[in-house]
Design goal:
single chain; about 350 residues; alpha/beta; Rossmann fold; Helicase, Ruva Protein, domain 3; Zinc Finger, Delta Prime, domain 3; six-stranded parallel β-sheet; two-stranded parallel ribbon; 17 helices; globular; DNA-directed DNA polymerase activity; DNA_polIII_delta; DNA polymerase III subunit delta
């Protein structure tokens, strides 16, 4: 069974599974999912918990012993395995496959880790655990899904935001869901009637959004000029190194240029497959390729090179205006922008 974190509580109320794989890139959702599973497990008699960090020092025999021996105080136990940031290598995968064969009805296995890749989902250990398990996807909602996520969190707290308040909450807390949770709890205390408006938000909250260079690049690909400039201003205010932005943008622009050239003799689907573009990213690349010609892309690469020269040699001159120009010229439609001489 597979489900997103926001559907977990509903699924737990129906039935408790013997194995839960809680994987993703959003710390808040991972924390809340872990807590919800442990809470439901305690209600059903899993009163003892064993936590193991899956690193080089782990003695797997201790894990197996927990599975095979009965507790003195409780017949039901939760075994929680914390996967390191490096992920699951072949040796860990072998142990997990073996562990899946030792489980019994008095054991609930909870494995927590970072976002899985498609390749990992095709491994023997994953298939063995998923035979009786549930994968809980704890992925950070993208900007298009964030308003829906915010609205659901508000409903759970008895808050009734209007449309403008939802958009503002999403914009102010993008990339920082811990801050969103704290802000909503604060608003619930401040306004017992639950009504949230733009004025109330501005009186009560400050911005807590956290952008990365990848947010900026996605805005460039999609052609959202205002959003790209807003992200760029905040990154500059946070003293993010301009070179990091340049390297991130360079990779995407060079790839777009290769794709644009290939479009002369290949269908777009085949080009995406060749460059291994994920399905959820294809609409962004399609928008950029329709908007930007080969000539325009060459110009953007040259503009990026110019900004890098300024950053590395002209210490009295800021490269940020050039990055702002790059943002604008990358987002504005070709017909609305004169080509360089």
């Amino acid at each position: 069974m597979r489900l997103y974190a926001d559907k977990l509580v509903e699924a737990l109320n129906r039935a408790l599974q013997p194995v839960y794989l809680v994987f993703g890139n959003e710390p808040l959702l991972i924390q809340e999912s872990r807590s919800a599973i442990e809470r439901k497990a305690r209600e059903q008699g899993f009163e003892e918990k064993h936590h193991f960090n899956v690193d080089a020092s782990l003695d797997w025999h201790e894990v197996y012993d927990c599975c095979q021996s009965m507790s003195l105080f409780s017949s039901r136990q939760v075994i929680e395995l914390e996967i390191p940031e490096a992920g699951i290598n072949a040796a860990i995968g072998k142990e997990l496959t073996k562990l899946a064969q030792t489980l019994n009805p008095d054991i609930l296995l909870l494995i927590v880790g970072a976002k899985l890749t498609k390749a990992q989902e095709n491994t023997a250990w994953f298939k063995a655990l998923m035979a009786e398990g549930c994968l809980v996807n704890c992925l950070t909602p993208d900007i298009s899904r964030l308003p829906q996520f915010v609205a659901a969190r508000c409903r759970a707290l008895g808050l009734s935001p209007d449309a403008e308040a939802i958009q503002m909450l999403a914009q102010w807390h993008e990339g920082n869901l811990f801050a969103l949770a704290q802000s909503l709890e604060k608003l619930a205390l401040l306004y017992p009637d639950g009504q949230l408006t733009l004025i109330r938000l501005e009186e009560s909250l400050s911005r807590n959004n956290h952008y990365t260079p990848f947010h900026w690049v996605d805005a460039l690909l999609e052609g959202k000029a205002n959003r790209a400039q807003r992200i760029l201003r905040q990154l500059a205010a946070e003293d993010v190194e301009p070179i990091i932005l340049m390297r991130t943008a360079q990779k995407e622009l060079v790839q777009l240029l290769h794709m644009r050239v290939a479009m002369n003799h290949q269908p777009l689907g085949a080009i995406f497959e060749k460059h291994r573009v994920w399905q959820n990213k294809r609409p962004l690349y399609s928008a950029a390729l329709q908007r930007l010609s080969i000539q325009r892309l060459h110009h953007l690469v040259q503009l990026l090179a110019q900004s890098e020269i300024v950053a590395k040699t002209q210490y009295e001159q800021s490269p940020w205006p050039l990055l702002q120009q790059l943002s604008f010229e990358c987002c504005v439609a070709q017909a609305n922008l004169p080509l360089p001489a």
